[in-house]
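Handout for the seminar on molecular recognition.
Each group receives one record of this type.
Step one: identify the two inputs.
Step two: read the structure output and locate the region that could contact adenosine monophosphate.
Step three: write two sentences on what you found, then compare them with the reference statements printed after the record.
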Amino acid sequence: MTMSKISSNTEFPLFSDLPLIEPIQSALRSKGYTIPTPIQAGAIPPLLEGRDFLGCAQTGTGKTAAFAIPILQLLHQSPAKAVSGAPRALVLCPTRELAVQILESFTNYGKSLRLRFAAVFGGVGQSPQVTSLTRGLHVLVATPGRLQDLMDQGHCSLSRLEFFVLDEADRMLDMGFMPAIKRIVAKLPKQRQSIFLSATMPPPIEELAGSLLRDHVTVMITPPATTAQKVAQRVMFVDKDNKRKLLESLLESNAFSKVLVFVRTKYGADRLAKSLKSSTMMIDAIHGDKSQGARQRVLNGFKDGALRVLVATDVAARGIDVEGITHVINYDMPLEPDGYVHRIGRTARAGATGESISMCDAEEFQQLRQIEREIGKRVPVDRNHPYHSADAEEEVIKRDASSGRKKTSRGRPTSGPRAAASGGAKSGGPAGRARKGFKGSKSSTTSYASGAAAAGGEAAPGRRRSISGKVKKINNSTSKPQYGYSAERKPDGTSSSGSSRGPSSGPKRKKR
Ligand code: AMP
């Protein structure tokens, strides 16, 4: 077994080191994936052994494959005919876009397996979805509202469910899905394997995880601060009325070839896209009021390059996985610091570099400071643009002084992306919420302070990614971990398993 050392205290396997069956290995090879991301390395082995799993990770970490691959393998290894309306695995996620992406992942990784997949989500007619349920399926990806409707109408039953995945649980909470989730959870069979993923762990999410998981393994990945470090960030002070002109002037540069612009409201998204259309033809908006078909068309246009600029609201952008975004522009500053990290995480994916520009007017001072606290560093100021607002910056300095905060080192003007990239991050910056451990009983926890590895797929094939941070191994030198899965022992003596069995031996599933 190959096992390379990545840093003095971290070892990570290749996919070929993991006990994965050949059809999955081959699907991974055809995608060009050789190295599991940290969440994949942490999740796949225990999931193959039937353990419940809690992953603190956000989009871009490779979390979808982390649960899709083991579920596919376990389903394949205990074959059963697809039954009408009764899936064996259910993945609940917050948005239609994410549902489509998760379905795509299952289809890609499981393309050579004799398994059937379907997705159901709102905003589109239900009859094609009813048809695919009725035809029989193994894996169902669903948004909570539509699933509940279909269950209420008798089109879907969870009685045969063996695997339950709750993806982006914190976003579900934000979007008001908690009552629907609780009703669905009440219908789950007691004997099942549960997988719970969330970027942050606020108390209601922690409570929900506690009620769903048993004897679970925890892996925490990518504190938001770390993701943000990969993106060259700058802030431009500008008066509200000049934001559109500033955006136009930025878009004059050819370097801005695939640009995601965030605005706060659906109305604002449409208005901005419309007003820019005259100057930049390849622009459109995506938000929750558009039909599913229209959203998918816009998204496809942005993916394949027909659109150069996409104006989006936070909810609509959730789960967007588009390669090659060169710039993320915060036209309106996000209201929550978490939102900032999610937004800028849309660029600098898959090994690419990326830039973010935040347009901050005098009223957005608080948001800027909260963001800086979250990411653990000051966002460098770029004054080298025609709409720099000395008034807005003055306001920030005044408010800083009046709030008695330590004076910042904003004195040195920066210009352009290079200067922006130089802002160093404090190691171990805030990001407390994402890092906070889940206090479930009988669990084991692995934390990866993963920087370069934050966005799944950023490492060039064949090159080991660099993982900073401390990963304790259970196995000592005489009993070397066979595929690099390591975990911390909790004080109660429980731990995640680091043992491995070859793919031929099949899964040894937990009995309940
Ligand atoms: P996710 O966090 O699941 O949204 O995945 C983020 C992106 O990383 C997707 O485009 C995946 O296809 C890609 N990806 C996932 N796992 C890997 C891997 N091991 N190597 C390279 N890219 C990956």
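Reference statements: The CA atoms of residues 263 and 332 lie 5 Å apart. The two ends are 32 Å apart (CA to CA).
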